[in-house]
Amino acid sequence: MASRTVILPFLLITFAAGCQTTDLIARVDFPDNTDSPAAAAKISPEPSAHDRLPPVGDDLTQPLTATELVTIAMDRHPQILAARERVRSLQEQMIVAGSQPDPRMSLTAQPAPVQTASGAQQLIVSASQEYLSEEKRTARADVVRAQVDIAQAELRAREVEISAQVRHSAHELRFLQQSIEVTITEQKLLEEIRTIAVTRYRTASTSQQDVLRADLEISGLQNQLIQLRQRQRSQQVRLAELLHVPMDLQLRTTEAVADPVLPHEPDMLLDLALMLRPELKAAEATIERNRRSAELAREEYYSDVTLGLSWIDVADHGQSPVANGQDALMLTAGFRFPIRQERIRAAVAAAEADTAAAARTRDALRQSTEADVQDLFQQAQSLQQMLQIDREEMIPRARQTLQVSSAAYNVGQTDFLQLMDNWRNLLTLQTSQLRREADLWQTIAALQQSTGDAWSPATTDDLPADETATQE
Protein backbone atom coordinates (compact mmCIF):
# COMPACT_ATOMS: atom_id res chain seq x y z
CA MET A 1 0.00 0.00 0.00
CA ALA A 2 2.77 2.38 0.81
CA SER A 3 5.12 1.14 -1.93
CA ARG A 4 5.18 4.53 -3.65
CA THR A 5 6.71 6.09 -0.57
CA VAL A 6 9.67 3.76 -0.89
CA ILE A 7 10.62 4.60 -4.46
CA LEU A 8 12.22 7.92 -3.53
CA PRO A 9 14.65 6.46 -0.93
CA PHE A 10 15.73 3.76 -3.35
CA LEU A 11 16.41 6.35 -6.03
CA LEU A 12 18.38 8.47 -3.57
CA ILE A 13 20.66 5.54 -2.73
CA THR A 14 21.32 4.74 -6.38
CA PHE A 15 21.82 8.39 -7.29
CA ALA A 16 24.28 8.94 -4.44
CA ALA A 17 26.36 5.97 -5.56
CA GLY A 18 26.35 7.12 -9.17
CA CYS A 19 27.38 10.67 -8.29
CA GLN A 20 30.44 9.55 -6.36
CA THR A 21 31.53 7.25 -9.18
CA THR A 22 31.16 9.98 -11.79
CA ASP A 23 33.16 12.44 -9.72
CA LEU A 24 36.11 10.08 -9.46
CA ILE A 25 36.10 9.06 -13.10
CA ALA A 26 36.12 12.71 -14.09
CA ARG A 27 39.42 13.06 -12.23
CA VAL A 28 41.04 10.06 -13.92
CA ASP A 29 43.52 11.19 -16.57
CA PHE A 30 42.79 8.89 -19.47
CA PRO A 31 45.71 8.17 -21.79
CA ASP A 32 43.65 8.39 -24.96
CA ASN A 33 42.54 11.57 -26.69
CA THR A 34 38.85 11.54 -25.78
CA ASP A 35 37.43 14.86 -24.75
CA SER A 36 35.61 13.55 -21.70
CA PRO A 37 34.94 10.34 -19.78
CA ALA A 38 31.44 10.27 -21.26
CA ALA A 39 32.88 10.33 -24.76
CA ALA A 40 35.29 7.57 -23.82
CA ALA A 41 32.44 5.42 -22.55
CA LYS A 42 30.53 5.87 -25.82
CA ILE A 43 33.37 4.62 -28.03
CA SER A 44 31.97 1.80 -30.10
CA PRO A 45 34.02 -1.38 -30.38
CA GLU A 46 36.32 -1.37 -33.37
CA PRO A 47 36.26 -4.18 -35.92
CA SER A 48 38.48 -7.16 -35.39
CA ALA A 49 42.15 -6.92 -36.23
CA HIS A 50 41.66 -9.14 -39.28
CA ASP A 51 38.94 -6.87 -40.65
CA ARG A 52 41.12 -3.79 -40.22
CA LEU A 53 44.11 -5.18 -42.15
CA PRO A 54 44.89 -3.03 -45.17
CA PRO A 55 44.79 -4.88 -48.50
CA VAL A 56 47.98 -6.11 -50.09
CA GLY A 57 48.89 -3.61 -52.79
CA ASP A 58 50.72 -4.08 -56.06
CA ASP A 59 53.64 -2.10 -54.65
CA LEU A 60 54.85 -5.25 -52.90
CA THR A 61 55.84 -6.64 -56.28
CA GLN A 62 58.35 -3.79 -56.65
CA PRO A 63 61.67 -3.54 -54.78
CA LEU A 64 61.12 -1.77 -51.46
CA THR A 65 63.48 -0.22 -48.94
CA ALA A 66 63.72 -1.48 -45.39
CA THR A 67 61.90 1.63 -44.16
CA GLU A 68 58.97 0.98 -46.51
CA LEU A 69 58.79 -2.64 -45.38
CA VAL A 70 58.74 -1.53 -41.73
CA THR A 71 55.77 0.75 -42.45
CA ILE A 72 53.85 -2.20 -43.91
CA ALA A 73 54.68 -4.41 -40.94
CA MET A 74 53.45 -1.78 -38.45
CA ASP A 75 50.00 -1.88 -40.07
CA ARG A 76 49.68 -5.65 -40.43
CA HIS A 77 51.70 -7.64 -37.88
CA PRO A 78 49.31 -9.59 -35.59
CA GLN A 79 51.41 -9.17 -32.45
CA ILE A 80 51.38 -5.39 -32.84
CA LEU A 81 47.63 -5.34 -33.46
CA ALA A 82 47.06 -7.57 -30.42
CA ALA A 83 49.18 -5.28 -28.23
CA ARG A 84 47.15 -2.27 -29.37
CA GLU A 85 43.91 -4.00 -28.41
CA ARG A 86 45.44 -4.84 -25.04
CA VAL A 87 46.06 -1.13 -24.44
CA ARG A 88 42.45 -0.32 -25.35
CA SER A 89 41.18 -3.00 -22.99
CA LEU A 90 43.17 -1.62 -20.06
CA GLN A 91 42.03 1.93 -20.79
CA GLU A 92 38.43 0.78 -20.48
CA GLN A 93 39.24 -1.04 -17.24
CA MET A 94 40.22 2.28 -15.66
CA ILE A 95 36.53 3.21 -15.58
CA VAL A 96 35.72 -0.06 -13.84
CA ALA A 97 38.50 0.37 -11.28
CA GLY A 98 37.41 3.90 -10.30
CA SER A 99 33.70 3.11 -9.93
CA GLN A 100 31.56 2.33 -6.92
CA PRO A 101 30.08 -1.18 -6.87
CA ASP A 102 26.49 -1.50 -8.02
CA PRO A 103 23.69 -1.38 -5.43
CA ARG A 104 22.23 -4.71 -4.33
CA MET A 105 18.51 -5.41 -4.07
CA SER A 106 16.72 -8.41 -2.62
CA LEU A 107 13.08 -9.50 -2.52
CA THR A 108 11.76 -11.80 0.22
CA ALA A 109 8.31 -13.35 -0.08
CA GLN A 110 6.69 -14.98 2.99
CA PRO A 111 4.32 -17.83 2.17
CA ALA A 112 3.83 -18.26 5.94
CA PRO A 113 4.06 -14.60 6.98
CA VAL A 114 5.14 -13.39 10.37
CA GLN A 115 2.10 -12.27 12.33
CA THR A 116 2.45 -9.02 14.23
CA ALA A 117 0.01 -6.88 16.14
CA SER A 118 0.04 -4.39 13.28
CA GLY A 119 -0.58 -7.05 10.64
CA ALA A 120 1.11 -9.91 8.80
CA GLN A 121 4.50 -9.27 7.15
CA GLN A 122 3.85 -10.40 3.59
CA LEU A 123 6.80 -9.03 1.59
CA ILE A 124 10.26 -7.61 2.35
CA VAL A 125 12.19 -5.52 -0.17
CA SER A 126 15.77 -4.56 0.73
CA ALA A 127 18.44 -2.47 -1.00
CA SER A 128 22.04 -1.88 0.05
CA GLN A 129 25.00 0.03 -1.28
CA GLU A 130 28.62 -0.51 -0.39
CA TYR A 131 30.58 2.74 -0.37
CA LEU A 132 34.29 2.57 -1.11
CA SER A 133 36.37 5.50 0.01
CA GLU A 134 37.66 7.92 -2.57
CA GLU A 135 41.22 7.02 -1.60
CA LYS A 136 40.62 3.34 -2.33
CA ARG A 137 38.96 3.98 -5.67
CA THR A 138 41.71 6.40 -6.64
CA ALA A 139 44.35 3.82 -5.72
CA ARG A 140 42.56 1.20 -7.82
CA ALA A 141 42.44 3.56 -10.79
CA ASP A 142 46.11 4.42 -10.32
CA VAL A 143 47.07 0.74 -10.42
CA VAL A 144 45.23 0.28 -13.72
CA ARG A 145 46.67 3.53 -15.06
CA ALA A 146 50.16 2.21 -14.37
CA GLN A 147 49.16 -1.04 -16.06
CA VAL A 148 48.12 1.02 -19.11
CA ASP A 149 51.57 2.63 -19.11
CA ILE A 150 53.16 -0.83 -19.01
CA ALA A 151 50.99 -2.03 -21.89
CA GLN A 152 51.82 1.05 -23.96
CA ALA A 153 55.54 0.58 -23.33
CA GLU A 154 55.24 -3.10 -24.24
CA LEU A 155 53.39 -2.13 -27.40
CA ARG A 156 56.19 0.22 -28.34
CA ALA A 157 58.78 -2.45 -27.52
CA ARG A 158 56.94 -4.88 -29.78
CA GLU A 159 56.85 -2.31 -32.58
CA VAL A 160 60.58 -1.62 -32.20
CA GLU A 161 61.37 -5.34 -32.09
CA ILE A 162 59.35 -6.09 -35.23
CA SER A 163 60.96 -3.10 -36.97
CA ALA A 164 64.43 -4.44 -36.16
CA GLN A 165 63.48 -7.91 -37.39
CA VAL A 166 62.12 -6.50 -40.65
CA ARG A 167 65.25 -4.42 -41.22
CA HIS A 168 67.50 -7.38 -40.40
CA SER A 169 65.59 -9.63 -42.80
CA ALA A 170 65.49 -6.95 -45.51
CA HIS A 171 69.25 -6.42 -45.37
CA GLU A 172 69.84 -10.17 -45.42
CA LEU A 173 67.61 -10.49 -48.48
CA ARG A 174 69.49 -7.61 -50.11
CA PHE A 175 72.79 -9.39 -49.43
CA LEU A 176 71.51 -12.58 -51.08
CA GLN A 177 70.22 -10.65 -54.11
CA GLN A 178 73.59 -8.95 -54.57
CA SER A 179 75.50 -12.19 -53.99
CA ILE A 180 73.50 -13.85 -56.76
CA GLU A 181 74.28 -10.95 -59.09
CA VAL A 182 78.00 -11.07 -58.28
CA THR A 183 78.12 -14.85 -58.69
CA ILE A 184 76.43 -14.65 -62.08
CA THR A 185 78.88 -11.95 -63.17
CA GLU A 186 81.85 -13.99 -62.03
CA GLN A 187 80.38 -17.04 -63.75
CA LYS A 188 80.40 -15.15 -67.04
CA LEU A 189 84.01 -14.12 -66.40
CA LEU A 190 84.90 -17.75 -65.69
CA GLU A 191 83.27 -18.80 -68.94
CA GLU A 192 85.49 -16.29 -70.76
CA ILE A 193 88.53 -17.80 -69.03
CA ARG A 194 87.35 -21.25 -70.11
CA THR A 195 87.10 -20.03 -73.67
CA ILE A 196 90.73 -18.92 -73.47
CA ALA A 197 91.68 -22.33 -72.04
CA VAL A 198 89.83 -24.11 -74.88
CA THR A 199 91.59 -21.95 -77.46
CA ARG A 200 94.98 -22.67 -75.98
CA TYR A 201 94.18 -26.39 -75.74
CA ARG A 202 93.26 -26.50 -79.42
CA THR A 203 96.55 -24.86 -80.26
CA ALA A 204 98.38 -27.33 -78.01
CA SER A 205 99.53 -24.48 -75.76
CA THR A 206 98.10 -26.11 -72.63
CA SER A 207 96.68 -29.39 -71.48
CA GLN A 208 93.04 -30.46 -71.27
CA GLN A 209 93.28 -30.22 -67.48
CA ASP A 210 92.79 -26.45 -67.67
CA VAL A 211 89.49 -26.87 -69.52
CA LEU A 212 88.33 -29.54 -67.09
CA ARG A 213 89.26 -27.37 -64.11
CA ALA A 214 87.27 -24.50 -65.58
CA ASP A 215 84.28 -26.80 -66.11
CA LEU A 216 84.59 -27.96 -62.52
CA GLU A 217 84.61 -24.37 -61.22
CA ILE A 218 81.56 -23.53 -63.36
CA SER A 219 79.67 -26.51 -61.92
CA GLY A 220 80.64 -25.41 -58.43
CA LEU A 221 79.24 -21.94 -59.15
CA GLN A 222 76.00 -23.48 -60.35
CA ASN A 223 75.67 -25.34 -57.05
CA GLN A 224 76.46 -22.12 -55.19
CA LEU A 225 73.75 -20.27 -57.14
CA ILE A 226 71.24 -22.98 -56.23
CA GLN A 227 72.06 -22.55 -52.53
CA LEU A 228 71.89 -18.76 -52.75
CA ARG A 229 68.49 -18.86 -54.48
CA GLN A 230 67.20 -21.31 -51.86
CA ARG A 231 68.37 -19.00 -49.07
CA GLN A 232 66.83 -16.05 -50.89
CA ARG A 233 63.47 -17.82 -51.07
CA SER A 234 63.66 -18.73 -47.39
CA GLN A 235 64.38 -15.11 -46.54
CA GLN A 236 61.45 -13.96 -48.68
CA VAL A 237 59.16 -16.29 -46.73
CA ARG A 238 60.53 -14.97 -43.43
CA LEU A 239 59.97 -11.39 -44.56
CA ALA A 240 56.45 -12.19 -45.75
CA GLU A 241 55.71 -13.64 -42.31
CA LEU A 242 56.86 -10.41 -40.66
CA LEU A 243 54.72 -8.35 -43.03
CA HIS A 244 51.76 -10.72 -42.64
CA VAL A 245 51.33 -11.03 -46.40
CA PRO A 246 50.96 -14.13 -48.61
CA MET A 247 54.02 -16.34 -48.45
CA ASP A 248 54.20 -16.79 -52.22
CA LEU A 249 55.04 -13.13 -52.82
CA GLN A 250 58.46 -12.69 -54.41
CA LEU A 251 59.55 -9.81 -52.19
CA ARG A 252 62.59 -7.80 -53.21
CA THR A 253 64.50 -5.11 -51.41
CA THR A 254 66.60 -2.16 -52.43
CA GLU A 255 68.83 0.19 -50.48
CA ALA A 256 70.93 3.24 -51.22
CA VAL A 257 74.60 2.43 -51.68
CA ALA A 258 75.62 5.25 -49.31
CA ASP A 259 77.10 4.16 -46.00
CA PRO A 260 75.51 5.04 -42.65
CA VAL A 261 77.13 7.83 -40.67
CA LEU A 262 77.80 7.01 -37.01
CA PRO A 263 78.40 9.52 -34.22
CA HIS A 264 82.03 9.92 -33.22
CA GLU A 265 81.24 8.66 -29.71
CA PRO A 266 78.40 6.44 -28.40
CA ASP A 267 77.39 8.91 -25.67
CA MET A 268 74.46 10.30 -27.64
CA LEU A 269 73.20 6.81 -28.40
CA LEU A 270 73.55 5.82 -24.74
CA ASP A 271 71.51 8.82 -23.61
CA LEU A 272 68.76 8.05 -26.12
CA ALA A 273 68.69 4.39 -25.11
CA LEU A 274 68.43 5.13 -21.38
CA MET A 275 65.71 7.73 -21.92
CA LEU A 276 63.59 6.19 -24.66
CA ARG A 277 64.10 2.43 -24.77
CA PRO A 278 60.57 1.06 -24.27
CA GLU A 279 61.69 -1.87 -22.12
CA LEU A 280 63.10 0.62 -19.62
CA LYS A 281 59.86 2.61 -19.72
CA ALA A 282 57.94 -0.60 -19.04
CA ALA A 283 60.23 -1.33 -16.09
CA GLU A 284 59.61 2.16 -14.67
CA ALA A 285 55.86 1.72 -15.10
CA THR A 286 56.07 -1.65 -13.34
CA ILE A 287 57.74 -0.01 -10.36
CA GLU A 288 54.99 2.63 -10.26
CA ARG A 289 52.28 -0.01 -10.49
CA ASN A 290 53.75 -1.96 -7.58
CA ARG A 291 53.96 1.24 -5.51
CA ARG A 292 50.29 1.94 -6.21
CA SER A 293 49.47 -1.66 -5.33
CA ALA A 294 51.15 -1.15 -1.95
CA GLU A 295 49.04 1.99 -1.38
CA LEU A 296 45.90 0.06 -2.31
CA ALA A 297 46.85 -2.72 0.12
CA ARG A 298 47.24 -0.15 2.92
CA GLU A 299 43.69 1.06 2.27
CA GLU A 300 42.48 -2.28 3.66
CA TYR A 301 43.36 -0.98 7.12
CA TYR A 302 40.30 1.30 6.83
CA SER A 303 36.78 -0.03 6.92
CA ASP A 304 34.24 0.24 4.11
CA VAL A 305 30.67 1.32 4.83
CA THR A 306 27.52 -0.39 3.60
CA LEU A 307 24.19 1.44 3.88
CA GLY A 308 20.87 -0.36 3.44
CA LEU A 309 17.14 0.23 3.32
CA SER A 310 14.40 -2.36 3.91
CA TRP A 311 10.68 -2.03 3.33
CA ILE A 312 8.24 -4.55 4.85
CA ASP A 313 4.75 -4.87 3.38
CA VAL A 314 2.37 -5.20 6.34
CA ALA A 315 -1.21 -6.41 5.87
CA ASP A 316 -4.08 -4.00 6.53
CA HIS A 317 -5.58 -6.09 9.34
CA GLY A 318 -3.63 -7.21 12.39
CA GLN A 319 -4.18 -8.93 15.68
CA SER A 320 -4.34 -5.65 17.56
CA PRO A 321 -7.64 -3.73 17.50
CA VAL A 322 -5.64 -0.57 16.82
CA ALA A 323 -3.63 -2.07 13.91
CA ASN A 324 -3.14 0.55 11.22
CA GLY A 325 -1.57 -1.68 8.51
CA GLN A 326 1.25 0.79 7.90
CA ASP A 327 4.31 -0.64 6.17
CA ALA A 328 7.57 -0.89 8.10
CA LEU A 329 10.72 0.96 6.97
CA MET A 330 14.19 0.18 8.32
CA LEU A 331 17.62 1.71 7.77
CA THR A 332 20.82 -0.30 8.26
CA ALA A 333 24.51 0.52 8.34
CA GLY A 334 27.29 -2.05 8.11
CA PHE A 335 31.04 -1.90 8.55
CA ARG A 336 33.92 -4.20 7.68
CA PHE A 337 36.21 -4.77 10.64
CA PRO A 338 39.86 -5.15 9.55
CA ILE A 339 40.78 -7.34 12.47
CA ARG A 340 43.11 -9.69 10.56
CA GLN A 341 46.04 -7.32 10.49
CA GLU A 342 48.52 -10.00 9.51
CA ARG A 343 46.73 -10.50 6.18
CA ILE A 344 46.89 -6.79 5.38
CA ARG A 345 50.52 -6.52 6.48
CA ALA A 346 51.42 -9.47 4.26
CA ALA A 347 49.72 -7.86 1.25
CA VAL A 348 51.58 -4.59 1.82
CA ALA A 349 54.90 -6.41 2.28
CA ALA A 350 54.35 -8.41 -0.90
CA ALA A 351 53.68 -5.25 -2.92
CA GLU A 352 56.77 -3.57 -1.46
CA ALA A 353 58.88 -6.62 -2.29
CA ASP A 354 57.55 -6.55 -5.86
CA THR A 355 58.54 -2.88 -6.05
CA ALA A 356 62.08 -3.66 -4.90
CA ALA A 357 62.34 -6.56 -7.36
CA ALA A 358 61.12 -4.38 -10.22
CA ALA A 359 63.72 -1.73 -9.33
CA ARG A 360 66.50 -4.34 -9.41
CA THR A 361 65.23 -5.58 -12.77
CA ARG A 362 65.23 -2.01 -14.07
CA ASP A 363 68.83 -1.51 -12.94
CA ALA A 364 69.95 -4.74 -14.63
CA LEU A 365 68.19 -3.70 -17.83
CA ARG A 366 69.93 -0.33 -17.78
CA GLN A 367 73.31 -2.02 -17.47
CA SER A 368 72.59 -4.46 -20.28
CA THR A 369 71.36 -1.57 -22.45
CA GLU A 370 74.61 0.33 -21.91
CA ALA A 371 76.63 -2.79 -22.72
CA ASP A 372 74.58 -3.50 -25.86
CA VAL A 373 74.97 0.04 -27.19
CA GLN A 374 78.71 0.09 -26.53
CA ASP A 375 79.22 -3.32 -28.15
CA LEU A 376 77.05 -2.58 -31.20
CA PHE A 377 78.70 0.80 -31.70
CA GLN A 378 82.16 -0.78 -31.69
CA GLN A 379 81.00 -3.48 -34.11
CA ALA A 380 79.62 -0.87 -36.50
CA GLN A 381 82.83 1.15 -36.39
CA SER A 382 84.93 -1.95 -37.05
CA LEU A 383 82.74 -2.97 -39.98
CA GLN A 384 83.04 0.49 -41.50
CA GLN A 385 86.83 0.38 -41.24
CA MET A 386 87.02 -3.09 -42.80
CA LEU A 387 84.67 -2.04 -45.61
CA GLN A 388 86.91 0.89 -46.39
CA ILE A 389 89.91 -1.44 -46.69
CA ASP A 390 87.91 -3.85 -48.89
CA ARG A 391 86.78 -1.13 -51.28
CA GLU A 392 89.94 0.95 -51.50
CA GLU A 393 92.64 -1.69 -51.29
CA MET A 394 91.81 -5.39 -51.40
CA ILE A 395 89.15 -5.63 -54.12
CA PRO A 396 90.87 -3.22 -56.58
CA ARG A 397 94.17 -5.08 -56.12
CA ALA A 398 92.48 -8.48 -56.47
CA ARG A 399 90.74 -7.34 -59.66
CA GLN A 400 93.99 -5.97 -61.03
CA THR A 401 95.80 -9.20 -60.13
CA LEU A 402 93.17 -11.23 -61.98
CA GLN A 403 93.48 -9.03 -65.05
CA VAL A 404 97.26 -9.36 -65.06
CA SER A 405 97.19 -13.13 -64.55
CA SER A 406 94.50 -13.52 -67.23
CA ALA A 407 96.65 -11.65 -69.74
CA ALA A 408 99.71 -13.63 -68.66
CA TYR A 409 97.87 -16.95 -69.04
CA ASN A 410 96.73 -15.94 -72.50
CA VAL A 411 100.37 -15.75 -73.60
CA GLY A 412 101.51 -18.71 -71.52
CA GLN A 413 103.39 -16.78 -68.84
CA THR A 414 101.44 -18.25 -65.87
CA ASP A 415 99.64 -21.48 -65.17
CA PHE A 416 95.90 -22.08 -64.95
CA LEU A 417 95.94 -22.90 -61.24
CA GLN A 418 97.31 -19.46 -60.40
CA LEU A 419 94.66 -17.87 -62.62
CA MET A 420 91.90 -19.83 -60.89
CA ASP A 421 93.28 -18.91 -57.49
CA ASN A 422 93.21 -15.22 -58.39
CA TRP A 423 89.68 -15.51 -59.78
CA ARG A 424 88.45 -17.34 -56.68
CA ASN A 425 90.11 -14.76 -54.42
CA LEU A 426 88.27 -11.90 -56.17
CA LEU A 427 84.93 -13.68 -55.85
CA THR A 428 85.55 -14.32 -52.16
CA LEU A 429 86.50 -10.70 -51.50
CA GLN A 430 83.45 -9.36 -53.32
CA THR A 431 81.14 -11.68 -51.38
CA SER A 432 82.87 -10.71 -48.13
CA GLN A 433 82.31 -7.04 -48.91
CA LEU A 434 78.59 -7.64 -49.47
CA ARG A 435 78.47 -9.64 -46.23
CA ARG A 436 80.10 -6.81 -44.28
CA GLU A 437 77.71 -4.26 -45.80
CA ALA A 438 74.74 -6.37 -44.71
CA ASP A 439 76.30 -6.91 -41.26
CA LEU A 440 76.83 -3.17 -40.92
CA TRP A 441 73.21 -2.32 -41.69
CA GLN A 442 71.98 -5.15 -39.46
CA THR A 443 74.15 -3.77 -36.64
CA ILE A 444 72.63 -0.34 -37.28
CA ALA A 445 69.17 -1.94 -37.01
CA ALA A 446 70.15 -3.44 -33.65
CA LEU A 447 71.39 -0.02 -32.50
CA GLN A 448 68.08 1.51 -33.53
CA GLN A 449 66.26 -1.13 -31.50
CA SER A 450 68.43 -0.41 -28.45
CA THR A 451 67.53 3.29 -28.66
CA GLY A 452 63.84 2.58 -29.09
CA ASP A 453 63.95 3.66 -32.75
CA ALA A 454 64.66 7.19 -31.55
CA TRP A 455 67.82 7.36 -33.67
CA SER A 456 68.07 6.85 -37.40
CA PRO A 457 71.49 7.19 -39.03
CA ALA A 458 72.18 9.67 -41.77
CA THR A 459 74.08 8.48 -44.84
CA THR A 460 77.06 9.93 -46.62
CA ASP A 461 74.67 11.20 -49.31
CA ASP A 462 72.97 13.38 -46.68
CA LEU A 463 76.18 15.15 -45.68
CA PRO A 464 77.78 18.18 -47.39
CA ALA A 465 80.82 17.47 -49.54
CA ASP A 466 83.33 18.67 -46.95
CA GLU A 467 81.80 16.57 -44.17
CA THR A 468 81.65 13.54 -46.47
CA ALA A 469 85.37 13.85 -47.14
CA THR A 470 86.01 14.12 -43.41
CA GLN A 471 83.88 11.04 -42.74
CA GLU A 472 85.77 9.04 -45.34
Strand content: 5-15%
In CATH's first tier, which class applies? Mainly Alpha
In CATH, the topology is named Outer membrane efflux proteins (OEP)
**Could you tell me the number of beta strands?**
6
Q: What is the strand arrangement across the widest sheet? A: 1-2-4-5
- Poorly predicted ranges: 20-45, 468-472
CATH H-level superfamily: Outer membrane efflux proteins (OEP)
Rg calculated over all Cα atoms: 38 Å
- Average of the residue pLDDT scores: 83
Biggest sheet character: 4 strands, antiparallel
Under the CATH scheme, which architecture would be assigned?
Up-down Bundle
Cα(first) to Cα(last) distance is 97 Å
Helix content: 55-70%
Give helix and strand order, one letter per element, not per position: HHHHEEHHEHHEEHHEH
What are the key terms here?
Outer membrane efflux proteins (OEP), disordered C terminus, 472 residues, four-stranded antiparallel beta sheet, alpha+beta, two-stranded antiparallel sheet
SSE layout and pairing:
Elements: H1 4-27, H2 37-41, H3 66-76, H4 78-97, E1 104-116, E2 119-131, H5 134-202, H6 208-243, E3 260-261, H7 267-276, H8 278-298, E4 305-314, E5 328-335, H9 341-410, H10 416-450, E6 458-459, H11 465-471
Antiparallel strand pairs: 1-2, 2-4, 3-6, 4-5
Helix pairs in contact: 3-5, 4-5, 5-6, 5-8, 5-10, 7-9, 8-9, 9-10
